[in-house]
Design brief:
By secondary structure, the chain is of the alpha/beta class. The protein has 24 helices and 19 strands. The longest helix is centred in the C-terminal third of the chain and has 33 residues.
Length: about 675
């Protein structure tokens, strides 16, 4: 720490590195290298990304004792080797603590590895409300708090903190700008945390792909006024070192110097990272893409080129069979020419193969419905064979729309190893292609149109309808319902249902086209088992199919409330509580009245307890009825008088007609 007469100064380092999950030796080596580089630049504290050791979804790794042992052994070696640097290194990791999962951070200090949150929790005690408050530690007098969850842990932040070190754990979501780190600051995110609390704020943002999750990088540091004083680049590795000073106004970046979050642009770069890291994890340096001449396959080839380079991408051109007319032959020739033109634009080499005639292979006539399904499977077979021959990763152009609606028609054959667009709806690809073409127009303009998207959607809906079984009139009605939908309508309904988990009546399409909406949701539900056989896809939305998995044997489909009032367990439970509360109130009032009567009549507590029993209540009820009858008889005699039936005591007429006392039962009125 350096004193400048006004306050303190300390250098913090954020190591934005991308490593393969589980490569413990390689990760530890990178941490040591980053620590030495940071030390040369005067840093006292080094932070590394949260998913580095456990990924975004640790799952069963937290319960694997040997994995934890190997991780701690590797970190211990790093701590011993960097002890001479007199630095503190903060390494987050998901661990099992007292039988429960815990996101802890290992503090490498003085040659030791200290699980900070676990150790502090034990010191605070089992019943202490602040047991899981953010840990705070001092580095040369600077109080640093480590936070993983801003929504929950900020409320438990102790006073006197100088610096918040926030380790981002949420992966990229194209609908949530705050998952893009520095790209969210321009719109006001994170700034209030620093300025309101008058603390420095450092965001350690991961970069790269960890299984299905993707991170964009973009680490940054805010001063205690909420100004950006340092930022790391997005979508690439970097070591950010920043001096943090109290009482000194440092130079800050203007808003126009900060990256602006644009959903499609960030999505493209995130998918580039996903393709690159998945190829590396599979040990492949090349990728093969089946070029069909449509928007998805052309955009996929451009994505592969951006991720791996044109020399490492192979385009598979598969000739179509079953061409019977000159018009079909002309269309096929035009398609092949367009495919070759796309390959030339991308500077990738192609492999051309002819698909076998399914009728000859199967030795039977192939119907029109079978032809498309068998052609798709033949394409998959050729794609798999080409990938194996070239030692490449086979990429699939399937979109989230196809995962949602056409999975049963696609799951019977090989579809590839990895589907970068598997969490991106078909209608979104048009806008992503426009963003990519701003760099260079590699996707033909005629494919970046609504008409091209409509052609693809027509094919997807046809595949979905081919999986239905039933009477001809029912299938015709289903085709009629889906045939009148626009791509935006289809994807909008799917997004509301899958990504937002909205009920049927809250889906926009349900109000005007309830039958079509019901059919779409039924297709989504029936494809649950088949989706699990399709290629893995990166998660880039609010909720992917990997996160939204439903029971694949489910027979229920959401058909809405049909005007009925919604029933919930919450409402039933609250009604039951109110009913019991009313019953308890009545019992309490009766008990209080019985106690009062007991005191007035001199009844002992033992006799009162006897009266409260079931048998006592029965006898008391019978006695009360008898007593009520006797009282009513007495009132009748009194109201009728003793001077005869015709008058009062002196034989004079009654001024009013006689009153029936049974109209006023004594106990019912009291």
């Amino acid at each position: 720490m350096v004193y400048d007469g006004k306050g303190w100064a300390m250098k913090l380092a954020l190591a934005q590195i991308d490593m393969r999950l589980g490569d413990i030796e390689g990760i530890c080596g990178r941490i040591e290298d980053q620590a030495r580089l940071a030390h040369e630049r005067g840093a006292r504290v080094l932070c590394v990304p949260a998913p580095l050791f456990m990924g975004a979804l640790p799952g069963g790794l937290m319960g694997t004792a040997d994995f934890e042992h190997d991780m701690l052994t590797g970190l211990t070696g790093v701590a011993e080797r960097i002890q001479e640097l007199d630095m503190i290194c903060i390494v987050p990791a998901a661990v099992s603590f007292e039988g429960q999962p815990l996101l802890d951070y290992m503090m490498l200090k003085d040659g030791h590895v200290v699980p900070a949150r676990s150790s502090i929790a034990l010191q605070r005690g089992e019943n202490n409300d602040t047991r899981w408050a953010p840990p705070v530690f001092d580095v040369d007098g600077v109080r640093i708090a480590v936070i993983f969850d801003l929504d929950r842990e900020l409320e438990m932040l102790p006073t006197g903190v100088d610096l918040i070190a926030y380790f981002q754990f949420s992966a990229f979501d194209m609908t949530d700008r705050e998952t893009a780190a520095i790209a969210a600051v321009r719109s006001g995110a994170y700034r209030k945390i620093a300025s309101k609390r008058s603390v420095w704020f450092a965001c350690m943002a991961p970069v790269g792909a960890y299984d299905e999750s993707v991170y964009t990088g973009g680490s940054f540091v805010l001063d205690d006024c909420g100004r950006v004083v340092a930022q790391a680049p997005c979508f690439e590795e970097s070591l950010l070192v920043q001096e943090i000073q109290r009482g000194v106004m440092l130079d800050a970046l203007e808003d126009h110097e900060l990256p602006e979050f644009r959903s499609e642009a960030w999505l493209w770069q995130a998918l580039v990272l996903a393709v690159r890291d998945n190829a590396r994890a599979r040990g492949a340096s090349r990728a093969v893409v089946a070029l069909e001449g449509d928007l998805p396959s052309s955009l996929l080839a451009a994505l592969a080129v951006d991720a791996l380079g044109p020399r490492n991408v192979i385009g598979l051109v598969l000739g179509r069979n079953r061409i019977f007319t000159p018009a079909q032959e002309e269309a096929e020739a035009a398609r092949c020419a367009a495919v070759r033109a796309i390959a030339e634009r991308l500077h990738i080499r192609t492999v051309e193969r002819d698909a076998p005639d399914a009728a000859r292979v199967l030795d039977r006539d192939v119907s029109a419905g079978d032809a498309e399904r068998l052609r798709s499977r033949a394409l998959g077979l050729m794609l798999e064979d080409t990938a194996l021959e070239l030692g490449a990763m086979a990429l699939s152009p399937l979109s989230k729309t196809e995962y949602a609606l056409a999975a049963p028609a696609l799951s019977g054959g090989y579809q590839g190893d990895f589907a970068p667009f598997g969490d991106v709806y078909l209608s979104t690809l048009e806008f992503v292609a426009r963003v990519r073409n701003r760099t260079s127009a590699v996707v033909p303009q005629e494919l970046v149109t609504l008409n091209a998207v409509e052609d693809c959607m027509e094919r997807v809906l046809a595949q979905a309808l081919s999986t239905l079984d039933g009477p001809v009139d029912m299938l015709d009605r289903a085709a009629q319902l889906l045939g009148g939908l626009e791509p935006g309508e289809v994807d909008g309904a799917l997004e509301a249902h899958v990504d937002r988990n909205r009920s049927f009546d809250d889906i926009p399409m349900a109000a005007g086209k309830p039958e079509a909406c019901s059919l779409l949701l039924m297709l989504v539900r029936q494809g649950e088992a088949a989706r699990r056989m399709l290629p893995t896809a990166p998660i880039v939305s609010a909720r992917s199919f990997a996160e939204r998995a439903w029971p694949y044997m489910l027979a229920w489909s959401d058909l809405g409330l049909n005007g009925k009032e919604r029933m919930t367990v919450d409402s039933l439970a609250r009604a039951e509580v109110r009913r019991f509360a009313d019953s308890d109130t009545g019992d309490r009032m009766r008990g209080e009245m019985m106690g009062l009567l007991g005191e007035l009549l001199g009844i002992s507590p033992e006799q009162m307890e006897e009266l409260r029993s079931e048998d006592g209540q029965r006898r008391l009820h019978e006695g009360m009825k008898k007593f009520e009858g006797e009282v009513q008889d007495a009132i009748e005699r009194m109201m009728g008088g003793q001077g005869g039936p015709q008058g009062g005591p002196q034989g004079t007429p009654m001024p009013h007609p006689p009153v029936d006392p049974r109209q006023f039962p004594f106990f019912s009125q009291n």
